[in-house]
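Incident log, structure service

09:12 report received: a user says their structure output differs between two submissions of the same chain.
09:20 pulled the input from the user's history:
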Amino acid sequence: MNSSPNQLYAAIDLGSNSFHMLVVRVVAGSVQVLAKIKRKVRLASGLDTQNQLSEEAMIRGWDCLRLFAERLQDIPAKNIRIVGTATLRVAANVEQFIATAEQILDHPIQIITGEQEAETIYQGVAHTSSGSGNQLVIDIGGASTELIVGQQYEPHILHSLNMGCVLFRERYFAGGQLQQSNFDAAISAAEALVAPLVVDYCAYGWQRCVGASGTVQALQEVLLAQGYDERITLPKLQQMMAQAVACGQLQALNIVGLSEERKPVFVSGLAILIALFRKFGIEQMTTSGGALREGIVYEMLGEQRQENVRQRTLAGLKQQFRIDQPHATRVSELALALCQQVAAPWQLEDIELNELLASAAQLNEIGLLIGYQNAQQHAKYIIENATLPGFSNSQKLLLASLLGQYQGPLDSACYEQLTGIEPTTAMRLTRLLRLAIIFCGRRQDSSVPELILTAEGETLSLQLSQPWLNSHPLVSSELQQEACYTLKIGGELKLTAATGS
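09:34 re-ran on a clean worker, output below:
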């Protein structure tokens, strides 16, 4: 990337529900977020039947932009991009709004098409999430919904539909009634709009579905607050709908985990999402770390399109925390080699699990910059609180748990709160990571022995040559200590000496 590490970039999204500003800089090859500023403007609510924006709505927008303008003063003009979306696309008097807005910001505003919005959203998701195969990306905005199927950084098919949480609230929940009939009408309308796309989208197919909107983020917060995991499914959506209907009135909407800010458009966004799940046969959805604003930033940066998101994140962390990179690679390679030897009996063939194990191995020394004492607690804290593009929230928490137990006594209870992975699987990954760290202790490739690892149940059997064990008494002692730690969590580590060099 050619940008100066001290150069700032700003992306502003003039959305139909909210205005957003994202300010970033590039640090150690990664994009570091410096500020996220969001204001509920409800621009779409200001459209009348003739698509005229009301004076009140425009004033709300201008007032918000005056706040943004203060932050833009210190950012080079070439590093600023401001876009308008669905409501500004259709507003008959958009020139009036834009003229004053550009004076306030002292910067031009681009009104992008629905297709441009969809492609930029996809880039934001692609640069902040990770996964193999095709992905279906869904973004429910205030006045439009974008649907994209793509792989890595390339969208294959994309559309922008004229439905959003603000528009559907005005059409189907305007009286504030939360009855099943309101939901049925909204869901039917959304299904009718989506129906012409289903055949083409399903022909491409996808391995995962990612949500990139405030509606999806709000739903995930509700699910976690109510004790569920973060994966959104149709049964969970239907349960949320039942909770909303039980409240009777929008003013009385009281769902555990739902913020006051999101309440006015939650039910309409929920109805649209239910329709999408039904028509596309979506099994589950996760949330993305980025969307339109992040896509704008990466379009400005322009040079990271073909880089793996996770590898970029890991490289930035290793540089930022001064990790010994050759050693990190050594630990990672050995952890993966051990994993491959026991992959079948321990059910660790999944590529995603292998990548997460390798990531934890590369970051095993991240806490040392703070201090050797309690280094693993430092590592756990850093990962839990860092922004990690390419890792979902559940993956980040798994990384933090692995790094929190890379040495010392084991605690199986720390995995009980993880989502998307069985505690037994998480503990198995931890045990492999710990063995790799023990054998790489001398920090030399030549000191890593040939070894054979087998697994049966929770018992690991490790075979090493007797001459190597004789010449490495410290490692032998550490392995014996590891066997003691393992027994306390219901596992076993057996060490077998073989003849030979």
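09:41 both user submissions now match this output. Likely a transient worker issue. Closing.
09:42 reviewer note: Confidence is low (pLDDT under 50) at residues 1-5. DSSP finds 19 helices and 13 strands in the chain.
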